[in-house]
Amino acid sequence: MLDYSTSAETIYNVTRQLNSSLDLTEVLGNVLRLTVEAASASKGSLFLLDETGCVTRHILARPDQSPEMSRHAVNTVMAEGLAGWVYRHRCGALAADTGADERWVRLPDDEEITGSALVVPLLYRGRVNGLLALHHQQIGFFDESHMALAEGIAGQAAVALENARLFTQVSRERESLFALINAMPIPVLVVDDQNTVAFANTSARECLPEVRENSPLDEISGGDRLRAALDALAQSNGNDHTELVWPDNRVFNVSVNQVNKLGAVVALDDITYLKELDAMKTQFVETVSHDLKNPLGVIMGFAQLLETE
């Protein structure tokens, strides 16, 4: 039986270590390793579950299994074993003698006998987001003190795992967003609330070499014009684009979208060629109009002369 004061100190030390990282893989490994050590277990398993109860990530007591065998083992214990029972009942379970407990499922390829085991749920805001299992070869090794320790660690681990999961999700979404922006064929900048270029995609770095990441707009050639354009758009009613003449006389159509906690995503579409075409069209129309005036004037003169005769 574990001493209460020792268990409390163990839970405190485990909590400190769990909160030292937001990397999901590292947190998963730490949760299992620290719990196995604290409970003097032979080995353990850890399942991370989604909202529907499906196992999304896992660390098994036998890490040397093939992916097919691992998948079969996970499905079996969740459908028929002690882990599945704990998930369905949302409470911990202790199998002091696995041979006499009908909830325990021994897999065909299990070479090492498990005498006793316990499984506790990782509960976060009423949802089971994980399962933690401990194994030992000796029958009757685990008792209620081990269960209390495992439940105490599981409560802290559930919070740490949820934080790590959310951090991983946000990081992936952010990476996907920047990968999408980086692949766009037109220059795209992300300007934060301090008017600093937080990100410039590949096209922006190629077309606007003077634009550098982590540089204030005021320190960039043409940055003052871009800042003025952004300020004008921020004060306009419903208008989300404007034209900007860069110092080298290129003309850009500037469009802005505000992204929460990221800043202004600025797209700079080079319309210099279109502007040149528009100028050529205007000049052509003016030339044609001028050239048509002379023959038309002569014709009208002759027509008036004929009328007088």
Helix content estimate: 40-55%
Low-confidence stretches: none
Taking the alpha carbons of the first and last residues, their distance comes to 132 Å
CATH architecture identity of the largest domain? 2-Layer Sandwich
Question: How would you characterize this protein structure?
Answer:
It is a single chain. With 309 residues, the protein is α+β, with helices and mostly antiparallel strands. The protein has 2 domains: 171 residues, 2-Layer Sandwich (Beta-Lactamase), CATH 3.30.450.40; 87 residues, 2-Layer Sandwich (Beta-Lactamase), CATH 3.30.450. 48% of the residues lie in helices and 22% in strands. The chain contains 8 helices and 11 strands. A hairpin with a 4-residue loop joins strand 6 and strand 7. Helix 1 runs parallel beside helix 5 and helix 2 runs antiparallel to helix 5. It starts with a helix and ends with a helix. The mean pLDDT is 84.
Keywords summarizing the entry:
single chain, 309 residues, Beta-Lactamase, six-stranded antiparallel sheet, five-stranded antiparallel sheet
Which helices and strands, and how do they pair?
Layout: H1 4-18, H2 24-39, E1 43-49, E2 55-59, H3 67-79, H4 82-89, E3 93-95, E4 116-124, E5 127-136, H5 144-183, E6 188-191, E7 196-200, H6 202-207, E8 215-216, H7 223-235, E9 241-245, E10 251-259, E11 263-270, H8 272-308
Helix pairs in contact: 1-2, 1-5, 2-5
Summarize the structure.
The chain has helices spanning 4-18, 24-39, 67-79, 82-89, 144-183, 202-207, 223-235, 272-308, and strands spanning 43-49, 55-59, 93-95, 116-124, 127-136, 188-191, 196-200, 215-216, 241-245, 251-259, 263-270. It is an alpha+beta fold.
